[in-house]
Amino acid sequence: MKQPKKPTAKQKKIISEYRLQPKNWFVTSEDKETLEIVHRHTDTKKILKKNIT
After folding, report:
1. Residue 33 belongs to what domain range?
2. Among 4, 16, 17, 43, which is least packed, fewest CB within 10 Å?
C-alpha cells in the first residue's frame, strides 16, 4: 500500500458527496473510476466510486 496523502480539492468534493468529512480521511490510491481512502484515526478503509450523481 502506498503512503496515504491528504486529499486534493477534487478528491475532497468526491468524499463530501458521500457525506464524509474530508479532513478525517487520507487518500491511498486513485484511478479513473475509484478513490480509495483510509480514516485518519480508525484506519477504516473505503472505496468510493467517482461517478456518483
Report:
1. 9-49
2. 43
Backbone angles phi, psi at 10, to 5 degrees: -65, -40
Residues 7-27 have pLDDT tens digits of 999 999 999 999 999 999 999
pLDDT band of residue 53 (cuts 50, 70, 90) is low
**Per the domain annotation, does 43 fall within a domain?**
yes
Q: What are phi and psi of 12, to 5 degrees?
A: -60, -40
Q: What is the dihedral of CA 39, 4, 23, 10, to 10 degrees?
A: -120
CA distances, 39 to each of 31, 36, 53 (Å)? 19, 10, 23
**Number of domain units in the chain:** 1
